[in-house]
Design a protein that fits this description.
mainly alpha, flat, about 5% strand, three-stranded antiparallel sheet, 11 strands, 47 helices, about 1000 residues, Rossmann fold
């Protein structure tokens, strides 16, 4: 039963069309003009036009709307008469006498129109006078926008009138014409003939393509009223809807009726079970109305094939259709039908005839011309799509489903058998497709045989995603026998831990471990891998830890698998257990191994021990690491080396061994690609983001982080890395709300299930946000919680990104002695550890305490040491912040002459009119720091340095030879534009950039002027 669906006209937001909207507005605002908006059905042509017409720059213009109707015999000039009727009561006086020609057609306007001219007997003369009348009437209106939609349905007269107007348009007329290219009478000729751009006019062709995954996610979120759509669901929606906004809206609204937010964890099953929305079924029926028998046979074959297929395959399947063979039979009623009219097609789609006609005959092999003509007809109607490489199929899966659902079940099974008969002779056989078609005809044994062969082939090729999907399909079928179910469950658990998609596997495996008939060793292995899935992919560390502990008990009679489980529990980054607990687990795991144990297992357990030591900053571990990296011969050993490389890259990144981290990252990327583990590749991608942030490679880093978020489909560990980096970048730009949201998503929103080092880093960043906002109580509370977690775990080397801000929060809260004690505890915690990042952070902590105690010389020395150590890693942002702190201490000594000592002009090469040498040096170094911050993208830090210079009477001179920007935005204007685009007020921008609100107001005015905008709400997000 179909649920009631509330209908609303149009999508709630225009998404992914910034460039197209800008182009359309540029045309409308520069008359005389014509814009051709081109795109397939449902692509959003009307939505784009409505958005443009509602834009502030268009609101003062008169707008007239007309639409061409899909009538069998369209009314001549109907769209123009419809739009001119909208002028009732609005016509100006003194109209050109030729306008009287319109009186018979527009009785609503007759009283305001001039008298009807004398009758002309020549048809062409009458037609020309009518065209002149329409043009004169539009010219009398001043600034006017005329919109004619669906020009592909226009009658010849309307097309000719449009051509007349655009070739010699009134001076203040802007025309907007929309159409489907594939439905034009002459493809590519919007007006039925070539358009020549007249001199002195503005014109543009604005083609609309499908939305990308990011835009699909944004639009789906808007349709659901702001309920954020997970990245993996967005990817699935994009695949099923082809990014067509109308199709997407129909699907999401139907999902919402089904309770979308509640079922996001099982989106594939939910989408599979979703009925094709009624409007899409009707659209398919409308598109195929009047198809020839041959075209209908092709459409039915393509629907059963499900995926884009070659012409010869479609033809071979279509040959099983009686109507296909009858198409060339002169006695057949199907062949007697006319293309473009409804005929009697056996088994036709809804609305395509009664299904009667001649008795079916044995199908004959189709000729190339048969298939070609049927495919061509379906392509021209927009039912099938050319995917290139001689492959044809439906534009999106819902169109395929609509066509498939219309087939009677007997016809479906017959066609599926025909597909199997054709595919079985292909070399090599397409195993996945054969398994699918066997399942559809109910042949269970054949389905299992092909499915298992497809899983083996996918694993051999390293395509774990395909293997997992096939196994999930097998385990979802209630017809599966118990022994098959156990075997496939173990296989799924093994491949799922290597992939990114985890939700369906988790649900299936959770149900399987509850099966009381499973042997303990089977249940234990499945539960072990389920625990790994929960910890690594799902981010459910607590539940994953619990399942892994239970698996240890269930695997008591399988020492090698038990050792794997114990080694998994020895990964110290999860949970709040002290370091010693992890050492005990790895010792137990190693105790179960013998010389006869599987080499890959020995490598895995030993690798976890090495990583545990590296994470703790054990200085003696390096030799063993180097020795292990040269091992590994089998595929399973290479997989363990890939995992080891990824874990070492993460550990060394947290410690600040950036050169080693880059080396491990490269090795991990190579090995993960070789063994086909998308999850490992995602883990390394997340580590890479943090590593690049530390190294100061910030260009496009935010974009890369968002791309990783889209790619990993919600896998928590990698997503947390990406969110942390986005939060850190937002802090450097002074975007507190964005930073808070990102840090919450990274770890702070669910600290129990967060990785410990990442949680400490996120807390350290959040303390900075609280302090910047003046929320000192919140900053201190965050610091106390975070320090307590590190203290319980005993992993002080992970506090490098936490301790400097935690100490600063305590100091600024007046708790200097407590801060001093914390620094001493931190120093003891990292003593003897090989953790260069923590060593640099310790000096920054000492500088903060010394400054608070008034020991300025000691503070300067500590900060300068910290800066040097950060720079040696290298970590340029932290080095610059420590250097800035040292310079602030110098300013506070009073020995530099204060404002008098700094007064002057600081240019690129030094202080121009410095009061003394020391003040000149400080001014020069602060200026250089501002430039270093700006080069990184740390705009708030750069602005803070400039503010210190201004407060001390230093004016920063322009760089020698600085370019003139003309109509382009200056760097400062780009900063302002970026903040305006994110919705900041002038006062908020002033706070971020350390400027006065008046200065910000001037910058905003220049931004609007240079971008030719009238309102700050129009500033695009890409203006900077």
């Amino acid at each position: 039963m179909t649920s009631p669906l509330l209908r609303r006209s149009g999508a709630p937001a225009l998404v992914g069309r910034t460039g197209e909207l800008r182009a359309l507005l540029d045309v409308i605002n520069h008359p005389p003009a014509v814009a051709f908006v081109e795109g397939e059905a449902g692509i959003g042509k009307t939505r784009l036009i409505r958005e443009a017409l509602g834009h502030p720059s268009v609101r003062g213009r008169r707008v007239l709307l007309g639409t061409c109707q899909p009538l069998r015999e369209p009314f001549p000039y109907g769209p123009f008469f419809d739009l001119l009727r909208q002028l009732e009561g609005q016509l100006p006086r003194g109209l050109n006498p030729v306008c009287g020609t319109l009186r018979p057609y527009l009785p609503e306007l007759a009283d305001a129109l001039p008298p009807t001219p004398e009758t002309l007997h020549d048809h062409q003369a009458r037609r020309h006078r009518l065209f002149r009348a329409v043009r004169a009437l539009l010219a009398s209106l001043g600034q006017v926008v005329v919109v004619v939609e669906d020009l592909h349905w226009a009658d010849d007269g309307t097309r000719d009138l449009v051509g007349f107007l655009v070739e010699d348009p009134p001076a203040e007329l802007a025309m907007v014409l929309s159409y489907r290219r594939e439905d034009l009478a002459n493809v590519g000729l919007q007006l039925g003939r070539a358009y020549r751009h007249p001199p002195g006019t503005t014109s543009a062709l604005i083609p609309l393509g499908p939305l990308d995954v990011s835009a699909v996610r944004s639009l789906a979120t808007a349709i659901t009223g702001g309920e954020t759509v997970p990245a993996d669901l967005a990817a699935e929606l994009h695949e099923r809807t082809a990014g067509i906004p109308f199709v997407l809206e129909e699907v999401v609204r139907a999902l919402t009726v089904s309770g979308l937010p509640a079922v996001w964890g099982a989106q594939r099953e939910t989408l599979d079970a979703l009925e094709v929305p009624r409007l899409l079924r009707e659209a398919m029926a409308d598109q195929t109305a009047g198809f020839s028998a041959r075209a209908m046979a092709v459409v039915r074959a393509a629907a059963v094939l499900r995926v884009p297929a070659a012409e010869d395959l479609i033809a071979a399947v279509a040959s099983a259709e009686p109507a296909f063979a009858e198409a060339d039979d002169p006695r057949s009623s199907a062949s007697a039908g006319r293309a473009g009219t409804r005929g009697n097609v056996p088994g036709a789609l809804p609305g395509h005839g009664t299904g009667g006609g001649a008795s079916p005959r044995a199908p004959r092999p189709p000729s190339g011309a048969d298939a070609d003509s049927g495919i061509r007809e379906a392509l021209l109607a927009g039912v099938l799509h050319d995917f290139g490489g001689d492959r044809y199929g439906f534009r999106h899966s819902l169109a395929q489903q609509a066509a498939y659902d219309s087939l009677p079940s007997l016809d479906r099974r017959r066609l599926h058998r025909r597909v199997m008969a054709v595919l079985v002779d292909v070399d090599p056989p397409p195993l996945v497709q054969l398994a699918y078609h066997a399942r559809q005809v109910g042949d269970l044994d054949t389905w299992l045989r092909y499915s298992e062969a497809a899983v083996d082939a996918a694993r051999e090729l390293g395509d774990t995603a395909v293997a997992a999907e096939i196994l999930e399909g097998l385990l979802s079928d209630p017809r599966l026998r118990g022994d098959d179910r156990a075997r496939f469950a173990v296989q799924l658990s093994r491949v799922a831990v290597l992939g990114l998609a985890y939700r369906r596997a988790v649900a299936l495996l959770r149900g399987i471990v509850r099966d009381g008939d499973l042997p303990d060793v089977v249940r234990g292995e499945v539960r072990l891998n389920l625990g790994l899935l929960l910890r690594n992919q799902a981010g459910q560390y607590e539940q994953g830890w619990t399942d892994t502990e239970i698996a240890v008990r269930e695997l008591r009679d399988s020492p090698e698998l038990a050792a794997r489980a114990m080694a998994a529990l020895a990964m110290a980054s999860s949970g709040e257990q002290p370091y010693g607990a992890y050492q005990q687990w790895i010792a137990r795991a190693e105790g179960l191994l013998t010389d006869q144990s599987d080499p890959a297992l020995r490598l895995a357990v030993r690798g976890n021990h090495v990583v545990l030591r590296m994470m703790a900053g054990d200085p003696t571990v390096w030799a063993e690491v180097e020795e292990m990296m040269g091992t590994g011969r089998t595929a399973e050993e290479c997989l363990q080396l890939a995992r080891l490389s990824g874990n070492l890259a993460e550990a060394t990144t947290w410690l600040g061994h950036y050169a080693a981290a880059q080396r491990f990252r490269r090795a991990g990327e190579r090995l993960a690609a070789e063994c086909g583990s998308s999850w490992l590749q995602g883990v390394i991608d997340g580590t890479s983001l943090r590593l690049e942030w530390g190294l100061g490679n910030w260009h496009d880093l935010a974009t890369r982080a968002r791309q990783v978020l889209d790619m990993v489909q919600g896998v928590s560990g990698t997503a947390a890395d990406a969110y942390l980096v986005l939060g850190l970048l937002a802090i450097a730009r002074g975007e507190w709300d964005e930073a808070t949201d990102a840090l919450e998503a990274a770890a702070l929103g669910d600290p129990v299930n967060a990785r410990a080092p990442l949680l400490a880093a996120a807390a350290g960043a959040m303390i900075r946000v609280w302090m910047a906002r003046g929320e000192m109580g919140a900053a201190r509370a965050e610091a106390e919680r975070a320090v307590a977690r590190v203290r319980r775990k005993g992993m002080w080397v992970w506090g490098a990104d936490l301790m400097p801000t935690a100490v600063a929060a305590l100091v600024r809260h007046g708790r200097v002695s407590e801060a001093d004690a914390l620094v001493a505890e931190y120093a003891a915690g990292i003593a003897g550890r090989d953790a260069p990042l923590a060593a640099a952070a310790l000096e920054a902590c000492r500088g903060a305490v010394a400054y608070a105690l008034g020991r300025l010389a000691e503070a300067i020395a500590a900060y300068e040491t910290a800066s040097a150590r950060y720079a040696a890693l290298p970590r340029p942002y932290s080095a610059a912040r420590a250097a800035e702190a040292a310079l602030r201490c110098r300013l506070a000594t009073g020995g530099l002459g204060g404002k008098a000592g700094l007064a002057g002009t600081a240019g690129r090469g030094g202080a121009g009119r410095a009061g003394d040498a020391s003040g000149a040096r400080v001014a020069r170094e602060l200026t250089e720091l501002a430039e270093r911050f700006a080069a990184l993208g740390a705009t708030r830090d750069a602005a803070r340095c400039r503010r210190v210079l201004r407060d001390n009477g230093v004016s920063i001179s322009a760089r020698r030879g600085r370019r003139g920007y003309g109509d382009q935005l200056t760097p400062r204007e780009r900063e302002v534009a970026r903040l305006v685009a994110t919705g900041r007020t002038n006062r908020e921008i002033a706070d971020v950039l350390f400027l006065s609100p008046r200065t910000v107001e001037q910058h905003v005015a220049r931004v609007l002027h240079k971008l030719n905008l009238t309102s700050r709400s129009e500033v695009p997000t890409d203006a900077y």
